[in-house]
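Run log, item B.
One chain of 161 residues. Sequence copied directly from the ordering sheet:
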Amino acid sequence: MLRELNESDRNQAIELVNQFFRKVNGLTLDGLFQIRPRAATKFTDIYFKLLGSGKIYMKGIFEAEENSSNEELVSLVIGRVEEKPHLVEERSLFIDLTVTKLGQKKKGHMKRLLADVDLWCKEKEIPAIELRAILGNEEAIQFWDHSEFERFYIRYRKKVP
């Protein structure tokens, strides 16, 4: 089932965000880019606080747990509306995080969520969706290169000596 997250989903959302952050920290990057401990909790709580504002997209795919009435969060998209008064588009949705639980990939969960993101943006008259992907995250790069998204920016990074 695809639905917006609520406070009762907080712990599962933090767990999924943590999975993503651990993956990022496991990549060989520049040695400086490391996500801090407990960042998943802080990150997730910020979005939960803003959830009713109409400027946050925070939905997930839930599956019924075996032998239980509980639902398990298996895939998640978190994004925010960016105001861009200097551009013709004026607003875009910036996707901050997409993650699918280990063992649940290749089941179409993210495609369903991204189709819902499109509908959400159409309803809010948001003409563009953007995101960043770390080059070292080859799985993500491959996914986005095979999606409807197009490469648009090149972002450069340098450590200050």
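Observations after the first pass:
- The chain is about 30% helix and 25% strand.
- The mean pLDDT is 94.
Flagged for discussion on Thursday.
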